């Protein structure tokens, strides 16, 4: 298919598709002449994916950042923490990880992000959130198992990588929305007089 058909099929304007190509977000088509290219079904999926990730994902995140999630993992939550706070947070993380059978690698992006979040909660006086840390970990375990099982069924490496990005960005948005829906129900049960 040619560029105009790719635009129709994907629902993304030609100018946007060309921008995605310039930015390296969409691979080039197969050249049929110096200024003409042919596109495939892979090219139809990618602009839809990029658009969905930008519309549903974190509004402050760039396209490159979103697509980089598959290769580089989570963005870091950076917090200035004292050695004492860091040791406290790592202790809490290691305790939860031990109960769940998780491996912990201090210094990794995920662990450092958790350290930052735990220390921020402590610093603002909302350590009560940490009383539910085991429950949050149990929930995260179930979600991770569902994510990995679903992505493993996708097959080809490129599709699995795309599935990992979608699962991370849109899956996080899905989890946040489901959590808010559940909050509404739980609030009705707990706070209804």
UniProtKB/TrEMBL annotation:
GO molecular function: DNA binding; DNA-binding transcription factor activity
Chain ranges passing through the membrane: none
The HTH merR-type domain, residue ranges: 1-69
Domain of life: Bacteria
Coiled coil region boundaries: none
One Pfam family of this chain: MerR_1
SUPFAM superfamilies attached to this UniProt entry: Putative DNA-binding domain (SSF46955)
Keywords: DNA-binding
Name recorded for this polypeptide: DNA-binding transcriptional MerR regulator
